[in-house]
UniProtKB/TrEMBL annotation:
InterPro entries: AB_hydrolase_fold, Epox_hydrolase-like, Epoxide_hydro_N. Belongs to the peptidase S33 family. GO terms for biological process: arachidonate metabolic process; epoxide metabolic process. This is Epoxide hydrolase N-terminal domain-containing protein. Residues 5-102 form the Epoxide hydrolase N-terminal domain. One of its GO terms (molecular function) is epoxide hydrolase activity.
Amino acid sequence: MFCGLQDLHERLDRTRYDTPLEDSQFHYGFRGTELQKIVSYWRNTFDWGKQVETINRYPHYKTNIEGLDVHFLHVKPPHLQPGQKAVPLLMVHGWPGSVYEFYRIIPLLTEPGKHGLDPSVTFEVICPSIPGYGFSEAPHKKGT
């Protein structure tokens, strides 16, 4: 079992659900009966292994910038022609968001020839998680 997954399962198992008012639909908030269905799927059916495999498709790193640990992906092109240099490309997600937004385009940028695109322009992609998102540390004070 993956790190933290047992803890998540235990917390999900301890969840207390409200009893919705009769025929209230979602007028008074999210219905506990619907939440139970979602939690059951997440707890018993969801393929956590596949998600871990997907997340780990690209190399992850952390660096410290002005006292904050910042997570980032750094994906280098696997194949360059002799003398060819990759163009560095910094891709930053918005708020709210995550580096996962870029997972489908990264291969097109780092291996364009493999996807029917012009291989003469190939990118080296760096995708930081903005502070407080993904695996980046949240700021501890206002400002920088």
